[in-house]
Amino acid sequence: MVSVQHTILTVKDWIIMNIEQKQFAPNAPIPSLYEISRTLDISQDNVEQAIRELITEQILTEKFQEGYCVKPEPAFFYPVDELRSITKMIEEVGCTAGTIIISQDPEVPSRDDKKILNITDDQLITVVERIRTADGLPVAYCLDKINQPDFDYLHLNDKLSLLQILQDNPGFKVAYATCEIEAISYEPYISNALECAPEESLLLFKQVHYNEDDRPVLFSMNYFKSNQMKFQIKREMK
């Protein structure tokens, strides 16, 4: 008699094989429990268990009123353990990077901004709000706080990459950055800017960039659609 565990593995392998052979397309529903059960001669209970495991493993997803669907691979890869601009991330997958500038203003830093950017006086900072696009479609909402009151990104945006602009600016060349990643539920203003559906979550990538003198020069908050991004970091045993 074939074990239940083996039958579940058979179903999983069959579904994965069909995904790899492009018989089941991303975001498209897979066959029903009944159809898979008849095709493989395996009980619907075991088919359902196999599908539940594939959902847990992020190979399938369940959509309201559509059933079980193939989860698409994230479009963009962003290694956490190296400094890489969003421009480079977009271009590496063959897309054209673009920028929609919403605003650029000198602002009085908040208490939190002063702490993060190590500001002790009444110095203003430059705050740039923008949308990064790939082939014209929104990819990231960026709120950048630059430790300089008269930083003019508007007239330098042909370079697109704020990180590259800083690298070319004496005293602002970035040597390293600290970062935090936080999961965010639907946030009306940002989610609308990124054209998210109500059920789509966001990933907030917060970075503080330091120059070669350990001075914080840029505090950036980048919001990405969670289903578009894949992050990776190398961790070593100490």
Automatic annotation (TrEMBL):
Signal peptide: none annotated. The keyword Transcription regulation applies. Gene3D superfamilies: Chorismate lyase-like, Winged helix-like DNA-binding domain superfamily/Winged helix DNA-binding domain. The keyword Transcription applies. Keywords: DNA-binding, Transcription, Transcription regulation. Residues 11-70 form the HTH gntR-type domain. It holds the Pfam family GntR. InterPro entries: Bact_HTH_transcr_reg, Chorismate_lyase_/UTRA_dom_sf, Tscrpt_reg_HTH_GntR, UTRA, WH-like_DNA-bd_sf, WH_DNA-bd_sf. Residues 92-230 form the UbiC transcription regulator-associated domain. This is GntR family transcriptional regulator. It comes from Macrococcus equipercicus.
